């Protein structure tokens, strides 16, 4: 059974919306801050468990699926008729559209991965080093 234009567009839209929903839920489930536990020269932060990192990576995965399906849909031979890629890239409008869609997909991936990886690093590295002012250090040495 051949894939139709309508099926392909619904696939791209479905995975795009799913990515958006997971991204919004991940951002809303993120805790405001961890519980600080002071130590000598550092602070240990304990974060409550929450699904924000997993939801962020799920959002990225569905964005990837949506993007791949979108690019496949550009070159897919609908009704058994395909156009050579060289002919498509001779069109200025197609080249502009293709580059804008590549840029948009890359920007979306970066904006999803940046907070997700940052949140994961906050959870794995629980130390925050406190810089002691020089005057306080001099008083400690005396």
Unreliable stretches (pLDDT < 50, length at least 5) are none
Whole-number radius of gyration?
A: 24 Å
Number of domains: 1
Work out the oligomeric state of the chains in this entry: single chain
Query: What's the number of helices?
Result: 5
* Biggest sheet statistics: 3 strands, antiparallel
Give the strand order of the largest sheet, numbering strands 1, 2, ... along the chain.
Answer: 1-2-3
Distance between the termini: 83 Å
How many beta strands in the DSSP annotation? 3
User: Which whole number gives the mean pLDDT?
Assistant: 83
Proportion of residues in helical segments:
55-70%
Structural class: mainly alpha
The 3D shape can be described as elongated
- SSE series: HEEHHHEH
Q: Report strand %.
A: 5-15%
């Amino acid at each position: 059974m051949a894939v139709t234009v309508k099926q392909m567009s619904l696939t791209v839209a479905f995975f795009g919306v799913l990515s958006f929903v997971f991204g919004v839920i991940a951002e809303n489930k993120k805790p405001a801050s961890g519980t600080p536990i002071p130590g000598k020269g550092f602070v240990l932060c304990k974060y409550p468990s929450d699904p924000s990192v997993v939801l962020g990576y799920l959002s990225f995965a569905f964005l990837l699926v949506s993007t791949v399906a979108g690019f496949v849909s550009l070159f897919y031979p609908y009704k058994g008729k395909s156009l050579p890629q060289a002919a498509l890239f001779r069109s200025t409008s197609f080249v502009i559209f293709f580059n804008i869609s590549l840029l948009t997909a890359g920007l979306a991936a970066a904006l999803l991965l940046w907070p997700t990886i940052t949140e994961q690093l906050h959870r794995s590295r629980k130390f925050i080093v406190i810089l002691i002012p020089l005057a306080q250090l001099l008083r400690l040495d005396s």
